[in-house]
Amino acid sequence: MQGAQPMEDQQDLLCKNGEPQAIGNYRPICLLSVVYKSSHDNFTTRISPFYDDITIDVRRGVRQGDTVSPKLFTATLEDVMRRLEWDNMAVRVDGRLLHHLRFADNVVLITSNISQAERMLADFDDACGKVGLQLNITKTMFMRNR
């Protein structure tokens, strides 16, 4: 049909208050299909922070730059790190076992040999994948201290 608008683009005017004869008292509303509304209202996601499942009703995504984004990322990454069992691969520094350092979205894995580093990287990649995070292999680096 030429000239027809898709349902999601059609608008109507509703009188918000006051005299119905005054055009300034109307506001436009978008007419969305019932299928779109019902599917959008029923989107949910499941996350498992701290070993308990939580169902979250999704209203909108979180974009990079949103003020809650770094907090969610940090909480998720903290949970990933707690699930990893790396104490036998850690390096002792000032009497404490150290196997990683984190800042924002940067992670440094610390170990005494290359085979442990490979295992740690594989474990970390697997644990991240289980919560929906993905390593950027193009930004992954290896450093060695002689």
Kindly state the percentage of residues in helix.
25-40%
- Low-pLDDT regions: 1-9
Number of strands: 8
What does the oligomeric state look like here? single chain
Element-level helix/strand string: EEHEEHEEEEH
Structural class: alpha+beta
Overall body shape: elongated
Strand content: 15-25%
Main-sheet strand order equals 1-2
- Alpha-carbon distance between the two ends: 73 Å
How many domains in all? 2
Based on CA atoms alone, the radius of gyration comes out at: 25 Å
What does the largest sheet look like? Answer: 2 strands, antiparallel
Helix count equals 3
Mean pLDDT: 74
Written overview of the protein:
This protein starts with 10 loop residues before the first strand and ends in a 16-residue tail after the last helix. It has three helices and eight strands, in the order ββαββαββββα. It folds into two domains: 7-41, no CATH class; 64-139, no CATH class. It has 146 residues and is an alpha+beta fold. The strands form four sheets. A two-stranded antiparallel sheet has the order 1-2. It has a two-stranded antiparallel ribbon with strand order 3-4. A two-stranded antiparallel ribbon has the order 5-6.
List the helices and strands and how they pair.
Elements: E1 11-15, E2 26-30, H1 34-41, E3 44-47, E4 54-57, H2 69-83, E5 91-93, E6 96-98, E7 100-103, E8 106-109, H3 114-130
Antiparallel strand pairs: 1-2, 3-4, 5-6, 7-8
Domain Reverse transcriptase: 1-146
Pfam family, one: RVT_1
Protein name: Reverse transcriptase domain-containing protein
